[in-house]
């Protein structure tokens, strides 16, 4: 491989990352406009989580609004965030692609109706592990200390403010189906997290809000299990194995 | 790659598209059928066909539970719904499915029938519990994803001793129509994207006949755009490597053995019908469920007189050809003119999972906007 090829490859990666940053910023701006709180966590590098939250919450640029951002708990972040986050919030995690706590948080957040952002470096997490994956393709330890993570989330913060200035772009796309006739609302699989179990039924949390579902068909469903719901019944348990 | 930005993890989607490009043999064409209506919906909504190389064509299969219901069964449902004092409950989409003469459940409701939309058969049972002096019927449709919920509902109804509840059962199964498609003499398919959620119940084993007897690969897939792209990549890889197997892309939920508990409850409550008519596909043996003898008192077909008249599909409607993948939605003679989501002639235009409605809502303008020769675009 010659120098030109290396340059081309680097440009291609940066180009895609730029695009992902823009997409993520717009998504974050939309959520902030709708009242979201950003929760920041990093089991491996908690100082980065604190830094991101501070960036978003303080109005360092004159005239820009402070955005609601909080630091998630460093210990048992999933349990803490489960209790704190509400539908429509954002969670941003910084961790390498093998971080099983972050991976588990990202998939559960889907059932909580929370949009997920995963910043990291090194081997990528499995495809679709988060809604937005902002990734540097080199050693994670290096990116954590050489300022590139900081650059990445500073850009994210600035671009989110840019997006917030374009109100026309902040409108959420129209829902796919409206009105009372839509089978995808009734026969569409919903990811749900079990909140409590009682007499063959479970109170669950879904992206559309809480509901009661039947759990007769799922063996030994317990609190915090992820299940797939169809037509009011849980028909399968989502694998406990977190992809890594 | 405009639409990839709207996907979950767009970077991963771009990588997958590049891999798919690299796996395609430029000198051949590939036809993959997505069996499930949920996949059809994902494909159109996210513009997946536009991301794929020209050599790959996606054919939309018979997996929309609304689209395959024949007109005669809709007429039967309307007949039951119009019984004096009866409450008829149904999933939303079935309300607009036309029977013969264009009649539907919404029209019956306008004429005075008490037709109510529910999200689950359990909701219908709750209506029966709340109104013990009235008869309540649930219009059960769907594949093995919704059938377990109906079965659970009947078990509950029996345990509670409910007497004013019954089910008009139209549940169908996915394997017999798949076999019927594979038996088609003009079959040109190269592989199948298998239904994800049906497979959570029945598992992957029932599909083994597809590669074994018909030499076609099948990949069970989830419903995110990334899942569909990954399943196409897996199919291409099989073809490239000369393999032909059932593979599972949706490992986060689907097990080879399915859900044994759900299968046991299905076997307890239902039995197979000898024959069932599928819209556009005719009668297919053992392709639908009926309520078993132990639950006969909950069978609306035994409780009420249903006409059971077979109604031929309108001559202008080509839902059958669309469901078999012989033609694309826009190739139907009445697509987008006489048949639209507001005034559907065929069932494929009713459900948002139906190929015609999905294409009408998400694909028709795109299809018109990407001619081979861009200079041929009409001036607005």
Structural notes for this entry:
The complex is a heterodimer of chains A (244) and B (380). By secondary structure, chain A is an alpha/beta fold. Chain A contains 6 helices and 10 strands. Chain A has helices spanning 3-33, 46-57, 77-84, 100-112, 140-145, 148-164, and strands spanning 38-41, 69-71, 90-94, 115-121, 132-136, 190-198, 201-206, 209-214, 226-230, 233-237. In chain A, the strands form 2 sheets. Chain A has a 5-stranded parallel β-sheet, sandwiched between helices. In chain A, strands 8-7-6-9-10 form a 5-stranded antiparallel β-sheet. In chain A, helix 1 packs across helix 6 (148-164) and helix 2 (46-57) runs parallel beside helix 6. The model of chain A is unreliable at 177-186 (pLDDT under 50). Chain B is of the alpha/beta class. Chain B has a domain at 2-64 and 176-248: 3-Layer(aba) Sandwich (Rossmann fold). Chain B is built from 15 helices and 13 strands. Chain B has helices spanning 10-23, 37-45, 48-51, 71-81, 105-110, 121-130, 147-160, 175-182, 196-202, 209-214, 225-241, 260-269, 300-303, 319-323, 355-369; strands spanning 30-36, 56-63, 87-90, 114-117, 136-142, 165-171, 191-194, 218-220, 246-248, 270-272, 275-278, 282-285, 289-291. In chain B, the strands form 4 sheets. A 5-stranded parallel β-sheet of chain B has the order 2-1-7-8-9. In chain B, strand 5 (136-142), helix 7 (147-160) and strand 6 form a beta-alpha-beta unit. Chain B is globular. Classes of the chains: A alpha/beta (244), B alpha/beta (380). Chains A and B meet through helix 1, strand 5 and strand 10 of A and helix 1, helix 2, helix 6, helix 7 and helix 9 of B.
Order of helices and strands of chain A: HEHEHEHEEHHEEEEE
Report the average pLDDT across residues of chain B. Answer: 87
What would you give as the CATH superfamily of the largest domain in chain A?
Answer: Glucose-6-phosphate isomerase like protein, domain 1
CATH architecture of the largest domain in chain A: 3-Layer(aba) Sandwich
What's the structural domain tally of chain A? 2
Query: Roughly how many Å is the radius of gyration of chain B?
Result: 21 Å
Strand order of the largest sheet of chain B: 2-1-7-8-9
Give the strand order, joined by hyphens, for the main sheet of chain A: 2-1-3-4-5
**Extended strand count of chain A:** 10
What is the CATH domain class of the largest domain in chain A? Alpha Beta
**Distance N terminus to C terminus of chain A?**
31 Å
Provide the CATH superfamily of one domain in chain B.
Answer: HypD, alpha/beta domain 1
